[in-house]
Design goal:
dioxygenase, about 350 residues, 8-stranded mixed sheet, Oxoglu/Fe-dep_dioxygenase_dom, oxidoreductase, 5-stranded mixed sheet
């Protein structure tokens, strides 16, 4: 029997500690959002008054051939302004993307005890973590999201440790996306006048994680968020969103585009992948590329899934603005640090916009 969700500690125990997640709470038949999930008015997402991002998807097949420079400029412009863009003809089979969405829905449809095996406290492997919200023990209001997070080491370990229900399709998604990620990084670095060899590019994306996020239907979506305001901490993120929508990006106040300071929705485009700049790329570029502040709304009509790949340097990597850029700019805007220290700060605090970058600012 489900507990009273009006009681904060019994809700926390049921959703977080026992691994039932938001889905378990929704499946119990709630008719209103529990207090623990109601966001302060300033964090609530006004769907009616939000506009859509008008930037058309970038066709990556045109990077080969006479249009290379034009397409490279589109990628650079997006990274310098919004920090978000969509790509098509990216090399990841569209039928694989459809299969991924089905796999995510099927995984979260499993009995709670099967998913709860992978809770942080009890997971049989450090490569897989099942959880809910972001840092639930520290959040003033919880996020309306369950997730499974799968860290890549090598194929053999993945096939041994990732959940059998999703390991093959998630691994194929990761492997078919990496060429695209490397191409995008090469374009972005060349624009900065920096030529990185393969080993340096590999070091910037040395740590790779596939997440499957699940946003159950919500009785009062206007009161909640699926994910709160944040930027991703890594280098580049690849995201598959489903057809429901709900991803919002904040246009930076200093961006050379319209709608400064506004939240715009990234509308789903069939067959497209969303790319966003992470904090590490903002730091490496000495602030030229912008990590994107974004958030996710919930919906009352249908459960939603999204599947990101986070590419991050290895935790032991030293990160600082590239020396060529510091010389050109005459100033380093960020200090040098070891990535593990940044990660501890990032994952130890609730989402709060781009505040995570303060760790590295000079």
């Amino acid at each position: 029997m489900a507990p009273s969700f009006d009681n904060g500690s019994s809700l926390f125990n049921f959703v977080v500690r026992d691994g039932n997640g938001v889905k378990g709470m929704v499946d119990s038949g709630i008719s209103k959002v529990p207090e623990a999930y109601i966001q302060p008015p300033v964090e609530q997402i006004d769907k009616k008054n939000a506009s859509k991002c008008e930037m058309p998807p970038i066709d990556l097949s045109r990077l080969v051939g006479p249009d290379h420079d034009k397409v490279a400029k589109e990628i650079v412009r997006a990274a310098e302004t919004l920090g978000f863009f969509q790509v098509v003809n990216h090399g990841v089979p569209v039928d694989l993307l459809e299969s991924l969405k089905d796999t995510a829905h099927n995984f979260f449809g499993l009995p709670a005890e099967r998913k709860a095996v992978y809770r942080t406290e009890s997971s049989p492997t450090p490569l897989v973590k099942y959880g809910t919200s972001f840092v639930p023990a520290k959040e003033k209001a919880l996020e309306w999201k369950d997730y499974i997070s799968m860290v890549y080491t090598n194929d053999a370990e993945v096939l041994q440790h990732w959940p059998i229900e999703c390991r093959e399709v998630a691994l194929e998604y990761l492997k078919t996306s990496l060429d695209m990620v490397k191409k995008l990084l090469e374009v972005l670095m060349e624009n900065l006048g920096v030529k990185l060899d393969d080993s340096k590019i590999d070091s910037l994306i040395g740590n790779k994680t596939v997440n499957m996020n699940y946003y159950p239907t919500c009785p009062n979506p206007e009161l909640t968020v699926g994910v709160g305001r944040h930027s991703d901490m890594g280098t580049l993120t690849v995201l598959l969103q489903d057809g429901i929508g709900g991803l919002y990006v904040k246009v930076p106040d200093d961006a050379d585009i319209d709608k400064k300071g506004e939240w715009v929705e990234i509308p789903p485009v069939p067959g497209a992948l969303v790319i966003n700049v992470g904090d590490m790329l903002q730091i490496l570029s000495n602030g030229k590329y912008k990590s994107a502040e974004h958030r996710v709304r919930t919906t009352s009509t249908k459960s939603r899934v999204s599947i990101p790949i986070f590419t991050i340097p290895k935790p032991t990597e030293k990160i600082a603005p590239l020396p060529q850029l510091v010389e050109k700019d005459g100033i380093a805007r960020y200090k040098e640090f070891v990535l593990a220290d940044y990660m501890n700060n990032f994952f130890g605090n609730p989402h709060d916009g781009k505040k995570s970058l303060d760790f590295a600012r000079i």
